């Protein structure tokens, strides 16, 4: 495997100094990885990963601009509407459980709450389901092609979304979903309207996390909740794979957070972290290993030629994955092996609940 953990280099000794940390504003940052490229797509540019010594965040330098969005977010980054329908046809138990025990319009009972805890052990999707809360109005930021919205509306939530990608938004429209084609910065959100706001692998993509979370704070209902799912900068994968860790996903991931960094970010905008759960993510380990092997292959034979498969959904093959029994068993085995890391706070993915600091 290529060398993954070079020594940190002080910004002061580097001729191209990094900007201040976008999370806490500190200028005490160090270069973690230099001369990095996009490992997912054959896009132009070189990037660095800087580590903030004050809040423990990692961030990309330089960060991409809104004008470069279509360059780095290719159509194949998103599934098609038909792929979403096909995937959900295989998840009948999960959809039944969500409808029966997480439905926003249903009256909650102690028995239903207990069954939710039991069922959550069977599925990551159930563990990440939004809590029964308020009148059931939910906003998903970065809803992609609308898979989660499609499920949420099916079991009672008044769910809507925001998606900046024209390709993904077009697929969400095919599913008949109430998704707006705009960025969070440009969205006009109703003040105090939403019981739950979800960002599933989205916060790390925000160029201005301070402004984004401030806007979402104002859109929360008085005791509303913001639910985040994002890579964990303290995960074992970063130590094992370094620059090839899939959680970095340069340059699309502007910031990679740790629980410490998230608390620092929330404290700046009047929010607080209520709960942190670590999740196992075997797909991140598998993806990181593929990136590292591809780098070895490129060193030996030169970079692979891009295959040009940039149409929407070309990276998603749900039917093939479902038929690949050996692959499914391998992912399950990796998940079991990773369980101790999640229990120790070193899981590859974090599921975070935050709320207004004045509602603690």
Give an overview of the whole structure.
Helix 7 links the parallel strand 6 and strand 7 (179-180). It is built from 13 helices and 12 strands. It has 360 residues and is α/β, with parallel strands linked by helices. The protein has helices at 69-72, 81-89, 92-101, 110-119, 124-127, 147-154, 166-174, 209-219, 236-241, 259-268, 282-301, 318-323, 325-343, and strands spanning 9-10, 29-36, 47-52, 58-61, 137-141, 158-162, 179-180, 194-200, 220-231, 255-256, 271-279, 349-356. It starts with 8 loop residues before the first strand and ends with a strand.
Arithmetic mean pLDDT: 84
Structural class: alpha/beta
Major sheet characteristics = 7 strands, mixed
What gross morphology would you assign? globular
- Determine the CATH superfamily of the domain at 71-241 and 256-283 and 335-359: Vaccinia Virus protein VP39
Enumerate the strands of the largest sheet in spatial order, edge to edge or round the barrel. Answer: 7-6-5-8-9-12-11
Percentage of residues in strands: 15-25%
**Strand/helix succession:** EEEEHHHHHEHEHEEHEHEHEHHHE
| Helix content class | 25-40%
CATH class group of the domain at 71-241 and 256-283 and 335-359: Alpha Beta
- Distance separating the two termini: 47 Å
In the CATH hierarchy, the third-tier topology of the domain at 71-241 and 256-283 and 335-359 is known as Rossmann fold
Provide the low-confidence segments as ranges: 1-15
Number of strands: 12
Count of alpha/pi helices: 13
CATH architectural designation of the domain at 71-241 and 256-283 and 335-359 = 3-Layer(aba) Sandwich
């Amino acid at each position: 495997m290529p060398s993954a953990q070079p020594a940190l280099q002080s910004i002061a000794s580097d001729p191209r100094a990094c900007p201040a940390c976008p999370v806490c504003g500190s200028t005490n940052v160090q270069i973690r990885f230099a001369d990095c490229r996009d490992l997912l797509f054959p896009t132009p540019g070189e990037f660095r990963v800087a580590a903030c010594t004050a809040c423990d965040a990692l961030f990309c330098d330089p960060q991409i601009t809104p004008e470069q969005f279509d360059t780095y977010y290719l159509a194949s980054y998103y599934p098609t509407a038909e792929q979403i329908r096909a995937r959900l046809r295989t998840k009948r138990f999960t959809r039944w459980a969500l409808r029966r025990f997480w439905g926003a319009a249903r009256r909650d009972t102690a028995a239903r709450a207990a069954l939710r805890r039991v069922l959550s052990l069977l599925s990551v999707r159930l563990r990440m389901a939004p809590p029964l809360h308020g009148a059931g109005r939910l906003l998903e930021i970065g809803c992609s092609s609308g898979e989660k919205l499609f499920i949420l509306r099916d079991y009672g939530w008044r769910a809507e979304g925001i998606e900046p990608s024209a390709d993904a938004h077009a697929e969400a429209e095919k599913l008949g979903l109430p998704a707006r084609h705009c960025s969070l910065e440009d969205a006009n959100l109703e003040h105090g309207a939403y019981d739950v706001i979800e960002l599933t692998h989205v916060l790390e993509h925000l160029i201005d996390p301070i402004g984004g979370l401030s806007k979402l704070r104002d859109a929360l209902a008085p005791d509303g909740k913001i639910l985040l799912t994002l890579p964990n900068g303290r995960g074992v994968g970063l130590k094992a794979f370094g620059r090839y860790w899939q959680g970095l996903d340069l340059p699309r991931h502007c910031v990679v957070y740790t629980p410490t960094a998230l608390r620092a970010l929330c404290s700046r905008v009047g929010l607080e972290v209520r709960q942190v759960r670590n999740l196992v993510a075997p797909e991140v380990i598998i993806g990181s290993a593929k990136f590292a092997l591809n780098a070895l292959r490129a060193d030996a034979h030169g970079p692979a030629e891009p295959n040009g498969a940039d149409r929407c959904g070309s990276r998603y093959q749900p039917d093939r994955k479902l038929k690949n029994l050996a692959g499914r068993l391998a992912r399950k085995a990796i998940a079991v092996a990773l369980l101790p890391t999640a229990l120790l706070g070193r899981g590859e993915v974090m599921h975070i609940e935050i709320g207004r600091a004045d509602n603690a």
